[in-house]
Amino acid sequence: MMKRKREEKNECMDIVWQTPANPPLPQDYIFRNGIRLVRPYYFEFIAHVKNRWAGKTIVDLFAEEFKGRPYEYYVSAVKCGRIQVDGEMVPVSYVVKSSQKISHFLHRHEPPVMACEVSILQKESDVLTVCKPASVPVHPCGQYRKNTVVGILQAEHGLGPLFPIHRLDRLVSGLLIIARNATKADSFRQEIEAGLVKKQYIAKVVGEFPADELIVDANIDYNAREGRSTAEVRDSAKGKVSSTKFTRISSNGTHSIVLCEPVTGRTHQIRVHLQYSGHPIANDMLYISEQPADRSIYGSTADRSARISDVSLASNFGEKLPDECRETSNEDFSLDPMCTNCPNLAPKGYDDDEEDAAEIYFAWALQTNTTTTLYPTIQRITLWLIPSYLYAMQVFLSELCSEGKNVKMRHFL
């Protein structure tokens, strides 16, 4: 941490700046109505000037690349030293050069996520197997740093450093393997690249999915600006070659439970290929129609990721969270005179008081020595990653556990 004293808006503030080297702590989190929020904190963002940024004024660079704050904020931030170049204050007209270091000191507000436990299923000296809850990113990205799987494991279990070896989309729940050192991470990645790891997803989709096995071969073109992928015909010059195998598990005519096995690994591949097949994931607001979802309406927060209102998060997860995490009433934090998000806990555009965030379905698993059965009450994608060297079991998925099999129930979420 860096402690700096500077004058801002005629106020003398004694600020402790956090950097990526500072791990999250248990007291950094606030729990409210089934939501996990992060107590706002001061943070130094560091970036190096890209070639396409070179030649722009420091204010124009930030205003064009980071549109979450008004132009006037960046002018004030440069004038008071909240934005610096190579550790020095610069005028608002300063033109940046390639490879220069830019620091942005700001009051950081992270988006909320569901207050679900990151369950540790298996812990070894060099690897962790955890169940990642939906709505929580795997690692720091975008606005998320502490509200991530890695951050929560560091704060609640004192684990670190951690090296995720594969990724799950933020809205995906399921098994996640994390290495505890760089050597193990490299070893795992080599096995994944060699095709030794089999990934299977379960999705609840709209409509009656075909009874026969379906293989979708459609190129995927990802638009980073929109955060959305599109499927193209196989011989299209656009996008990357992509293939996914789908098998229907059950259907009631209105919705279907589908086993999804990606042959390639592209951004949003399963979601896009299901949309392309005419059977989008039931509550995937980004791909449930041909038109891009309005993120200002649907958002990308926990409360907007699944608006399903039959199961209370408190009843499902209140017993699993540590006592100090059930509800946190002390929401004191320092208000920053320059912060455009204060006095709210969450950033603008995220409603940290919305109770719909506490209502969602989750999948249950039943397990024998050789069989895993997944109930069809799935309202989102769920990943079961089954590397042959880690789990000596075959995967069988059915609508109900029937035929009087002797099974042992295990709650993975």
Structure notes:
It is a single chain. The protein has 413 residues and is of the alpha+beta class. The protein has a domain at 118-327 and 337-413: Pseudouridine synthase (2-Layer Sandwich), CATH 3.30.2350.10. It is 14% helix and 29% strand. The chain has helices at residues 58-65, 71-79, 149-157, 182-193, 269-276, 295-298, 302-305, 313-317, and strands spanning 2-8, 11-17, 29-32, 35-38, 41-48, 83-85, 101-108, 113-114, 119-123, 127-132, 163-164, 173-179, 197-206, 214-217, 219-223, 228-232, 243-251, 255-262, 365-367, 372-374, 382-387, 408-410. The longest helix is centred in the middle third of the chain and has 12 residues, at 182-193. The chain is globular and about 65 Å long. 33% of the residues are buried. Mean pLDDT is 74; it is low at 2-13, 291-329 and 352-413.
What's the arrangement of secondary structure elements?
Blueprint: E1 2-8, E2 11-17, E3 29-32, E4 35-38, E5 41-48, H1 58-65, H2 71-79, E6 83-85, E7 101-108, E8 113-114, E9 119-123, E10 127-132, H3 149-157, E11 163-164, E12 173-179, H4 182-193, E13 197-206, E14 214-217, E15 219-223, E16 228-232, E17 243-251, E18 255-262, H5 269-276, H6 295-298, H7 302-305, H8 313-317, E19 365-367, E20 372-374, E21 382-387, E22 408-410
Helix pairs in contact: 1-2
Index terms:
single chain, 413 residues, alpha+beta, nine-stranded mixed sheet, three-stranded antiparallel sheet, 8 helices, 14% helix
